[in-house]
Amino acid sequence: MGKRKTQRKNTAMLDGDDDSSSSISSSTTMRSDRMSVSEIEEVEINKDSLLDEAVDALYEKRGSTREKALASIIEAFNSDLQHQFVEKKFATLLHQCLSSIKKGSSKEISLASNVIGLLALTVGPGDNAREILEESITPISQASKSGSEPSKIASLLECLAVITFVGGVDPEETEKSMQIMWQSVHPKLGSNVVTVKPAAVVITAVVSAWSFLLTTMDGWRLSPKLWQESIAYLSTLLDKDDRSVRIAAGEALAVIFEMGSLEKFAAEAKGSSNGSISEGNKSKEGFSHIQGLRGKILNQVRDLSVEAGGKGSAKKDLNNQRNLFKDVLEFLEDGYCPETSMKIGGDSLQTSTWSQLIQLNFLRHFLGGGFTKHMQENEFLQGVFGFTPKRRNLLGSEHISNSQKRMYKSPNSAISKARTQMLNKQRMQSKDRNFGHFAVNAGDEDS
């Protein structure tokens, strides 16, 4: 039981990050409760008119004007769920943002990417989210390959992760997005390919976005070759100088182990002989390579969990790394997932699997200051995490805003529940497959 205490460090870290935004949100709610219905509606009308002006400004020729407009749209989408506005201006906003991605500066592309992701999270699963994915995937892919501005590439790929998470229906769509991400840092080499060493911020963004989408996949349908390439590459990232890169790689490996994918292709390699001597030797070599990779990763994780830190090492970053890799080590050795809890407006949001934790961390990063608001009012995200705020049960009372009432009656509700059931089913399948099998050294002692 002593080991499990290390997992609680995540709880303190999560709680500490969002206390201020939760308390601000709560005090805002108290003020709005004292406002009359007519006052609330007047505020909403003013907000809509400001958003209309911002969307109109996206047609301006001056890039700086468009950048300011996009920044104000992001602020509006983070401070409130803009369901009514989206119903009216969905297509216009999407296509203007795509226009910014095609012709804008790096800053404008980053801002437009953020807006598209927020738009997808606001509409929730359904036809609009599918349209966002279908219309955006090619411009995003092309823009991520042009130029080398790290923050631009990171924003594009984070946007791609969000719109795929919300709008992707078929596993093939998710795989396509994951492949686009992977090629940004690990391109297929050819005679006409010039390799540029990706910046640490890009590697971190790619690995985090890739892991985020991996949590929605059934790992058993992906090819062993793909897994072996992915795991070998992630292992090399654990040795990189940049701490954020190491943390992202550690989280990705934790999800892979949770899915049982390393065990899957280890078993395939061990049992793939069809009787011929060459095939038998080949399978033995493959199995030995995988076993060696498992041992290498375990040693890397163990070292990172107790790293002393170097010059200029920020104490918080170092502690975050140690805590993460202690959790990964405990998971690999004993099979325990870290359990986390954070307060959102007085309610507790909890995670108990690596997949949930990676989803939570990614969405908190993407939404930034808007995370608390979205978790309190965004039905899709509540479904993803099984989170039900107490005040959600007050539908019809004077304590709930008109925008919230619209959201709860939204046609997305049924679709949201269906997607949640799918995600939960995949997590349960992972748990069933992995129970008793995901310790790295599980089978080593018998051999």
Notes on the protein architecture:
The chain is mainly alpha-helical and 447 residues long. The chain contains 19 helices and two strands. Strands 1-2 form a two-stranded antiparallel ribbon. A hairpin with a 2-residue loop joins strand 1 and strand 2. Helix 8 runs antiparallel to helix 9. The chain is globular, with a radius of gyration of 23 Å. The relative contact order is 0.11. The N terminus and C terminus are likely disordered. Pfam families: IFRD (PF05004), IFRD_C (PF04836). InterPro entries: ARM-like, ARM-type_fold, IFRD, Interferon-rel_develop_reg_C, Interferon-rel_develop_reg_N. This is Interferon-related developmental regulator 1. Belongs to the IFRD family.
Topology, element by element:
Blueprint: H1 9-34, H2 37-57, H3 63-79, H4 83-103, H5 106-123, H6 127-145, H7 150-167, H8 171-185, H9 200-214, H10 224-237, H11 243-258, H12 261-270, H13 277-304, H14 315-334, E1 340-344, E2 347-351, H15 354-367, H16 371-377, H17 379-385, H18 402-408, H19 412-434
Antiparallel strand pairs: 1-2
Helix pairs in contact: 2-3, 2-4, 3-5, 4-5, 4-6, 5-6, 5-7, 6-7, 7-8, 7-9, 8-9, 9-11, 9-15, 10-11, 10-12, 10-13, 11-14, 12-13, 13-14, 17-19
